[in-house]
Design goal:
Blueprint: H1 2-16, H2 23-29, E1 35-36, E2 42-43, H3 45-54, H4 58-66, H5 76-96, H6 105-121, E3 128-131, E4 151-152, E5 161-164, H7 165-168, H8 178-192, H9 198-215, E6 216-223, E7 226-233, E8 243-248, E9 251-254, H10 256-262, E10 270-282, E11 286-288, E12 291-306, E13 311-329, E14 332-344
Parallel strand pairs: 3-5
Antiparallel strand pairs: 1-2, 4-5, 6-7, 7-8, 8-9, 10-12, 11-12, 12-13, 13-14
Helix pairs in contact: 1-4, 5-6, 5-8, 6-8, 8-9
């Protein structure tokens, strides 16, 4: 291990000595190196190049490899960030298709680039890295904006997005919901397209964030001092399916695909092209030993398209049932969502 750290340190110093070169020259000269964190997070050469250009020293890179800086990524906020990243392409696409998303030609072009980068990087292990900022003082500041930021990235699509754990778990601030996380990711991936202006990206992020907030429907119920949350994003277009998710203590479950599988149009010669969900509400939870049995109900409107492209709306009741199972596993107690059932009728 000591030899690996020594080798990595020397390699970082050699790479940093090439800062007088252009980005293209540096990329040609760098060799592939990997850093393996305790979470088995493999950081490839292109990501390391970006980290050095972002201001991480070779020493900090070594600390990153040893896990002194990186968080374990297992908390609720980290889970929400990962879930939202996977959904980002869809959220932006739904915004683009809506009359509510008023954007300039340049903003639309940037959003399209952000969509493409998010799609390409969705399955990258190091697309986001969660860091305790107090262990790397000043890293989340820059000359263009001296304010401590919740996230930071580089100016190419290979750069990881560093998330400031100290801010996202600041108990004096309001927790980041999905629209807020979407805004953060749009801003940071916007930088990855090469844009440096913070205000431009803040305005762009606000467009999508405001759109999602206008379409958001949420219901909560407290279990064991934490909220079980069902969140729906209804969109005005008849040929769009509501995004619906269930979350509890960092566990996120997407429900939209399961609802789609259970939904059928009764009107002859029509096909289902979208649905909208309203009036979400929980029933009282039933506790049984180490588990909670929970049911929730909602109204669902199916949009059924005929051969003449006309839309027939069919009303149904949506019932979602599941069990919150409490388990004692190292390093402590965890909760799982099990026995998920969905009925549309």
């Amino acid at each position: 291990m000591k030899f690996q750290i020594f080798f990595l340190t020397m390699l970082m110093i050699l790479i940093q000595s090439g800062f007088g070169q252009t980005v293209e020259e540096q990329n040609k000269d760098y060799e592939l190196i990997e850093i393996l964190t305790p979470e088995f997070l493999t950081i490839q050469q292109d990501s390391i190049d970006s980290m050095l250009r972002m201001g991480l020293t070779s020493e900090d890179a070594v600390r990153l490899s040893s896990g002194d800086i990186v968080g374990n990524g297992g908390g609720k906020a980290e889970a929400d960030f990962n879930y939202t990243y996977r959904k980002l392409y869809k959220f932006i696409s739904d915004c683009e298709a809506s009359y509510k998303c008023i954007a300039t030609k340049r903003q639309k072009s940037i959003l399209n680039k952000i969509k493409q980068i998010s799609l390409i990087n969705t399955n990258k292990k190091d697309k986001m890295i969660f860091i305790d900022e107090h262990l790397v003082p000043g890293f989340f500041r820059d000359s263009n904006d001296p304010q401590v930021r919740v996230a930071k990235t580089g100016f190419d699509s290979n750069a990881p997005i560093f998330i400031n754990l100290d801010l996202i778990y600041n108990h004096s601030s309001k927790p980041y919901d999905i629209p807020a996380i979407v805004a953060i990711l749009i801003h940071e991936i916007g930088h990855q397209t090469g844009i440096r202006e913070h205000l431009l990206l803040d305005d762009l992020a606000a467009i999508v964030r405001n759109f999602l907030n206008s379409e958001k429907l949420q219901s909560k119920m407290t279990v064991e001092n934490s909220d079980v949350i069902i969140t729906a994003f209804n969109f005005q277009d008849v040929d769009v399916f509501t995004e619906l998710s269930l979350s509890y203590r960092g566990v996120n479950v997407e429900l939209g695909t399961r609802i789609l599988q259970e939904s059928r149009c009764d009107t002859r010669d029509t096909i289902l092209v979208g649905f909208k969900i309203e009036n979400i509400h929980f029933e009282r939870a039933v506790k049984r030993k180490q588990s909670f049995h929970i049911k929730t109900k909602a109204w669902i409107t199916l949009n059924c398209q005929g051969l003449d492209l006309s839309i027939v709306k069919e009303s149904r009741d949506l019932k979602v049932g599941f069990i919150l199972e409490r388990k004692f596993l190292p390093p402590g107690m965890i909760y799982t969502i099990e026995d998920l059932s969905i009925v549309v009728k």
